[in-house]
Amino acid sequence: MTRKLEEEFNLPPIEDVLPADTKEQSKEITEVEVKEALTNAEKIDSALPKVKDLTAHDDEMEDIAQKALDSYDELMNLGMNVQDAHAGRVFETASKMLQIAMDSKNAKVDKKLKMIDLQIRKMRLDQTEGSESKSEGGVMDRNHILQILNKKDK
Fold it and tell me: Which residue in 19, 93, 97, 152 has a CA-CA distance of 20 to 30 Å to 131?
């Protein structure tokens, strides 16, 4: 922490707050911490494989997008070769095919982003679940937060 931050928030110097032996303690990883990390990883792994055929949806969306793009190309060529009175309807249908292709590509990306978001939420939930059990009623003081941050940094 910088001196300006300490002055701004009216905090004591970090050297006064932290005990001298924290540097030595940070190197050691206890067996309990390793087991706790492994159980968290196992929970996440056990939750994700239950969803089957995740890649099947991607393949189907890719097929739909490719068919829609092929149809778009055919309709554009057809629209150029028909009478002007009928070309508007053909071009309108071609634009719908292009919209379908774009929607299927977006569906793939949205699905991946939702999966990532769910994984992040689960990790946060697991982390807050573990930290709340250590603190008193979910409220932590500044020193406890600094200790947690120091552990994460090292």
Answer: 19
Half-sphere exposure of 52 (CA within 13 A, CB side): 0
Q: Any idea how long the chain is?
A: 154
In angstroms, the CA 26 to CA 30 distance is 10
Which tokens hold the place of 56?
A: 């099947």
Cross-strand partners of 136: 139
pLDDT attached to residue 52: 61
Q: Which pLDDT score is estimated for 138?
A: 55
Please report the pLDDT score of residue 135 as a whole number. 47
Q: Which two tokens stand for residue 111?
A: 């699905």
pLDDT of 48 above 70: no
For residue 115, give both structure tokens: 């999966």
Joined tokens for residue 12: 């004591």
Separation of alpha carbons 105 and 65, rounded Å: 7
Task: List C-alpha distances in Å: 140 to 1, 7, 38, 137, 146.
Answer: 19, 22, 26, 8, 10
Whole-number Å distance between alpha carbons of 77 and 137? 69
